[in-house]
Amino acid sequence: MDRLLLMTCFVRAVETGSFSAAGRDLDLGQPNVSRYVAALEEYLNTRLLQRTTRKLSLTPEGESYYLEARRILDAVEESESSFKGNIVPSGVLRVACPTALAHTFLVPHLSNFLELYPELTLDLQFNDRYVNLVDEGVELAIRIGHLQDSSMRARHLGSFKRVCVANNQYLAKHGIPIIPNDLSKHDCLVYTLLSTGTTWQFHDKDVSVSGRLRVNSPEAIRECVNAGLGIAYGPEWLFEDGLKSGNLQLILNDYAPPPVPIQIVYLAGRFLPKRAIAFMDFVAEIFEKISAFNTR
Predict the structure, then answer these.
(1) How many CB atoms lie within 10 A of CB 246?
(2) Where does the HTH lysR-type domain lie (predicted)?
(3) Hey, which of 2, 84, 163, 191 has its CA 20 to 30 A from 68?
């Protein structure tokens, strides 16, 4: 029994989300991948995956085994590459990144990264929800905010200022908030994926806000505040064009909260392949040159 093959099938099933996708990826076909994963479970005498008609999900035992299997496969790949004289980063790198951040600062530089590493395939997942690195087979995630999970390690990329902004016409019609508590009298644009929910943080207090418009996209928040639909709260760089054009105005700037860190996170106990290190170095160099992320 080729245990590396069984491991590979299991890991790719976890990372692609299905036996069918793993079969296509490995050129083995869905029945073989399913059979090999079942053989691995039988060999280990434990259930690794819960199977439903809709998706695969890891059992607690499967989660632990995935981490070890991924580490072993990465180490094997690195070892083989070094013996072959192939010292350049290669393979598939899966990275999760917040949508607006990715489109604004990452996408414009991707051609340079791919040109630097022609043997590397980049699988980027742009979304604004929390991504579980283990469950979704992601090696790196760019995250906004302080690291809360002790099973993760992080590389600091920079920090940015959070601000409140509003369209000039909205302020002319509804008045300018003087203190954070004044927000209770205003239509606030609610970003539904904000980690603090409907609570906006300021340097000396947190304020609960409400509004008639709720959206799950930072880009939508930007468009709505530019259209004068309410007051918005978020990273200053998100509203940069509107502030420069004079369409938007900073408000409650004296109450701004501390800067928010941006980090690349990865699993603490996992072997980091060269492709992951190369990507972290590349992104860190990009962010170092962006003034919006050098806030102290």
Answers:
(1) 8
(2) 1-59
(3) 84
Single pTM value for the model: 0.73
Structure tokens of 244? 């420069």
pLDDT band at 82 (very low <50, low <70, confident <90, very high): low
Q: What percent of the chain has pLDDT over 70?
A: 95
Average pLDDT value for residue range 254-261: 91
φ/ψ of 181, rounded to 5, equals: -60, -20
pLDDT digits (tens, 9 = 90+) for 262-295: 999 998 867 778 889 999 999 999 999 888 787 5
Q: Quick check: 124 pLDDT over 60?
A: yes
Rounded Cα distance, 154 and 163, in Å: 25
Query: Long-range contact list for 211-220, CB < 8 A, 24+ apart?
Result: 211/186, 211/187, 212/187, 213/187, 213/189, 214/190, 215/189, 215/190, 215/191, 216/128, 216/191, 216/192, 217/99, 217/100, 217/128, 217/191, 218/98, 218/99, 218/100, 218/128, 218/191, 219/99, 219/100, 219/103
The whole-angstrom separation of Cα 135 and Cα 109 is 28
Tokens of 294: 């050098």
Pick the more confident residue, 108 or 78: 108
Structural contact between residues 187 and 295, judged by C-beta atoms closer than 8 angstroms: no
